[in-house]
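Per reviewer request, we include the raw input and output of the structure prediction for the construct analysed in the revised manuscript.
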Amino acid sequence: MTAAADSELELLAAELPIAGLTFRRLHLPDDAGRLAELYNAAAIADNSGESGNAADWEHWLAHPSGMDPMTDALVVELAGEIVAYAQARVDRDNDGGRNYLTGGEVAVEHRGHGIGRALLHHNERHLRVLAATHPAGLEKRLESWSYDSQVRCNRLLESEGYETVRYFFEMLRETLDEIPDLPLPSGLEIRPLRPDQYRQVFDADVEAFRDHWGGMDETDDAFNRHFSGPNFRAELVRVAWDGDEVAGVVNNQVMTGYNEKTGARRAILNGVSVRRPWRRRGLARALVADSLRGLRDAGFTSAALGVDADNPTGALGVYEATGFVVERSGRTYRKPL
């Protein structure tokens, strides 16, 4: 651990003089399962629906977006038990700016003692140090994300000057019955995905999402995270081809942690993208419908996805037309750095 990291933890300890509370950096892979337990318990209390397992956390921390797990995250313990976690990340925004993301969780039984606020202050200090190393001309803003049901978190962020700038929906198709028959546009076809095509498909997905609000991680870590790990199954991914060109992609993945926790057989349409030349032709609907049939045939019984409530390409209507309904909503908060 660097001297700077030591001083960060000393500042945090001074802000949280709670007897027995200790602060440290991550110990991997040992912390992965304990972090999954922390977040799963919080999800039940907050009705956020999230569930992960140790493998999910190990995969994320092996291929993180915009952070170094050894310096940009920390663990809070009490009597050897993890009672809170914080992480700070940096995203490049599609508008050319930088988003400095603060996130974390506090165990339900340890809320109300100022831990969450102190971790937010820590993350902000840490992110300002990182921001000072980036070009001065960039627009820089602090950012966080939460579900509407996370009332305490929302109240904390708003009391610290964060404002809602965007809303998002999580949508659910409770069954995979009565899937609409929506053919692909003329000239396009869906083919099985081969490993030698992973990078081309990833690059096409990145290109399509550059038109969307926010940022899209284009790093090798993002590539490796999307095309490997416990939730990735190549046969579930749907890619529409126009000759040798990728026209659209749906990166369907297994919700392994959620399924283990609940006994469900659910998958997630983890990103639906269509490149500009092939938009407004019904390709997204056809890809979603074919994805649902593929998931049903693979033994899944329900499907989920997330969508920007103000998506400029009409994604919400596409998902409603293919049988999805809004299950819960969340929001992005920002404030000037």
